[in-house]
Structure formats: structure tokens, C-alpha cells
Amino acid sequence: MMLPTHAVIGLAIAAPLLVLSPDIAPAALTGALVGSLVPDLDLYAGHRRTLHYPTIYTLLALPLALVAVVAPTTGSVGVAFIVVGAAVHCHADRFGGGLELRPWEGTSERAVYDHVRGRWRRPKRWVRYDGAPEDLSLLVTLAVPLLVVLEGPFRAVVAVALVVGAVYAGLRRRLATLAPVVFGYVPERLEGYVPERYRT
User: Fold this and answer.
1) What are 43-73's pLDDT values in tens digits?
2) Where are the membrane-spanning stretches (predicted)?
């Protein structure tokens, strides 16, 4: 899934706290947003493996959520939602396509690495690839209600996610053709930092 979709999913998970506990809702929204984005910081360093821990994040989320329920402070709620957002991100990646430049071709059986099991989890391809029409549809479906209920910077994040997601979805297949050409000009000393999928 696209990063904008992950961001909006995170905000949607935390949004019920706007009604249930408005005083800690900003901490939950911030935590969920951060957690939903953090796993993809590994895009150029072992993507979907270096910062993707589907089982570990899930196991950590349970006690942290319990602490946040028993002792709801901005810190406990924020940390719990960071880990929940990261866990949901990792599991959502499994419902998408494989780890490849052109996931619509279905040539990769690597969705996300499970460090506990020591193996790659296979993609389910419910969302065929990042930027697919169903990815954009999910983004819009979640973002529109969030634009109504959120305010201030959170509403701005959702609006930016919608614009970026729509542009990316429109260009996704072209970008796959362009990437190997662009990365072909990377200096030789930096080639080791370019993911293999961008070199083929």
C-alpha cells in the first residue's frame, strides 16, 4: 500500500478517541500517525525487513495498550499507538503485492519479513500493488470521514495524503518504467544503496 494510505489508516485507528477520550486523542492520533509511517523509513535499506516487525510489534502492542487503558497519560497512549500503528502497517503490507518494482506482475513472493519465524510472509494481493485503484479507493474511503472529524494539522495531513496518493496512483506504472533509468545514473560508489528492484 501507498504511504499515504498507511498514514490515513493510522489516523482512522486513533480517531474513535476523539469521542471516547478527547483529552488524549491528540496523543493517540500523533502516535498512530508516527507508527504508521516509521516502518517505511527502511525503503532504501532492506525494505519491508529492516523496520518491519509484524509479530514483534503486535506482541508489544498488547501490553502497551493495556498500560494505556489502565494508566491513560499522553505518554502511555502515544507510545501504545505508535506500536499499534507500526503493527497495522506491517500486516497491511502483507495484504498488498510483493516486494518488486512491478508488483502487478506478481513475480515476488516476499511481502514482509517475519523476524520471529525467520522467513518472508507471502503477499495476499488483496490490494494488487501500491497505487492500485483499490489502494486509492481505500485511501479515499478512510480519508473523507477523517476530513470531517479531524481538525488542524491532522486534517491537513489527511488532505495532503489524498493529493499525494491520487498523484502517485496516477503515475505509479510510469514510475516503474522510469526508476531503472533514473537510478542508472547513480554514481558507482553509491550503487550499493540502490535497491536491487530499481536496477533491473
Assistant:
1) 878 889 999 999 999 999 999 999 999 999 9
2) 56-84
